[in-house]
Backbone:
């Protein structure tokens, strides 16, 4: 009896200890804001002489705009990210082995050489529920449909192949939506390979979440990182850069891009917002429509998939300019102040200043870097290094999170030191001008390209 009482006593003390140190999301939100504001105030004080000296060349308002765009605001955002990542702790899964039926939608265009491998990874899932697969051949000019049907039969998949003649990924996915009879949908790109527990972890997260959570983004990492130097750099972007942003947004219950490459959705929620919109960033606008309707979107780092990233600067430029255009589309369609949640008001509102920071970086920081090499420190100098520590700290925190994820999935982090160095020091010099290009393309409503 004494042992039983001691057990109960210890259990209650343990529960009390856990409850005592539980930090609500709203508290994390305001603590992160407080930290980032303190960082901003210190940065402004330290930067005062820099701003004053620069103003003698370009006027005070322009000086403030330049320093704010390349140092102060990026520092504020990075410091908010750092503390949020430190405070982030993924909620435990209520059921690690769900068995609810799910339909996987794959929009494919000219994927005859890769579709079988994608389907083979789906067939090897450790998910105990029924998986239905719908391939939507979106106006392919090759044997995508034939090869998909053969692979489905060979792998004993519950697979259906349908045709959609109207080009556009949104058309393909909406055609697939009409053929869904399950409560849950997963979208997978035709060149994306799923880790063997990917479906299980993704469905487990959406089933373990509150009812208002209508979608969960999976963690998409780089498959072809050994192809060339450009893919080696992108490996770190997906592993640290994109993952850190998604983790931050997931913490505040508003992952802003439940990406079509690999994510789960509640079927009714997708239908209620009218399916995937006619947009170059169809997954971005869809996600913001969810948030506007009061639903929440999460991120699950354990639900891992691997995708092929662009191997040439031209294809990378197309992809990232398309992403930038998608963000502008979302801002045009759904204003941040129309979002019902304070979290998503803030998260989507940050995107309003992204074009300003990208333009400031492209027009001022890059030329300033050239001047610095010539010994002229008007724009780029020691003060601009204030942003770097926060960036490195955020990457370190995310690396530790990712190492824990990889350990649980029995995966190994590839050694790619050179790629990491160039990712930290040079990647933004490539990506930011490409984003500016995307803003210009959207401003003039230039032709949309799926890939």
Residues:
């Amino acid at each position: 009896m004494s042992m039983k009482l001691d057990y109960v006593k210890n259990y209650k003390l343990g529960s009390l200890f856990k409850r005592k140190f539980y930090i609500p999301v709203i508290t994390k939100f305001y603590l992160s804001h407080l930290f980032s504001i303190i960082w901003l105030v210190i940065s402004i004080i330290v930067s005062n002489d820099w701003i004053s000296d620069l103003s003698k060349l370009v006027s005070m308002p322009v000086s403030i705009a330049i320093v704010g765009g390349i140092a102060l605001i990026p520092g504020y955002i990075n410091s908010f990210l750092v503390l949020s990542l430190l405070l982030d702790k993924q909620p435990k899964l209520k059921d690690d082995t769900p068995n609810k039926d799910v339909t996987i939608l794959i929009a494919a265009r000219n994927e005859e050489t890769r579709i079988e491998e994608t389907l083979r990874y789906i067939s090897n899932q450790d998910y105990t529920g029924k998986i239905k697969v719908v391939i939507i051949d979106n106006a392919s000019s090759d044997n995508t449909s034939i090869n998909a049907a053969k692979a489905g039969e060979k792998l004993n998949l519950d697979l259906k192949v349908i045709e959609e003649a109207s080009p556009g990924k949104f058309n393909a996915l909406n055609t697939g939506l009409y053929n869904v009879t399950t409560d849950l949908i997963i979208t997978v790109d035709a060149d994306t390979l799923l880790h063997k527990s990917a479906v299980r972890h993704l469905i487990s997260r959406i089933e373990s979440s509150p009812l208002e959570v209508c979608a969960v983004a999976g963690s998409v990492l780089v498959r072809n990182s050994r192809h060339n130097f450009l893919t080696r750099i992108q490996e770190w972007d997906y592993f640290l850069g994109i993952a850190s942003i998604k983790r931050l947004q997931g913490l505040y219950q508003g992952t802003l891009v439940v990406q079509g490459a690999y994510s789960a959705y509640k079927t009714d929620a997708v239908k209620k917002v009218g399916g995937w919109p006619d947009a170059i960033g169809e997954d971005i606008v869809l996600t913001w429509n969810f948030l506007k309707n009061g639903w929440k979107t999460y991120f699950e780092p354990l639900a891992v998939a691997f995708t092929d990233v662009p191997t040439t600067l031209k294809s990378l430029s197309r992809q990232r300019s398309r992403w930038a255009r998608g963000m502008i589309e979302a801002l045009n369609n759904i204003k941040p102040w129309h979002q019902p949640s304070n979290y998503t008001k803030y998260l989507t509102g940050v995107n309003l200043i992204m074009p300003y920071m990208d333009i400031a970086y492209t027009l001022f920081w890059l030329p300033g870097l050239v001047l610095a090499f010539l010994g002229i420190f008007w724009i780029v100098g020691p003060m601009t290094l204030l942003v770097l520590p926060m960036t490195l700290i955020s990457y370190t925190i995310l690396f530790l999170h990712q190492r824990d994820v990889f350990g649980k999935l029995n995966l190994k982090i590839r050694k790619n030191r050179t790629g990491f160095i160039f990712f930290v020091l040079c990647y933004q010099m490539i990506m930011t001008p490409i984003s500016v290009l995307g803003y210009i393309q959207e401003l003039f409503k230039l032709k949309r390209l799926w890939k």
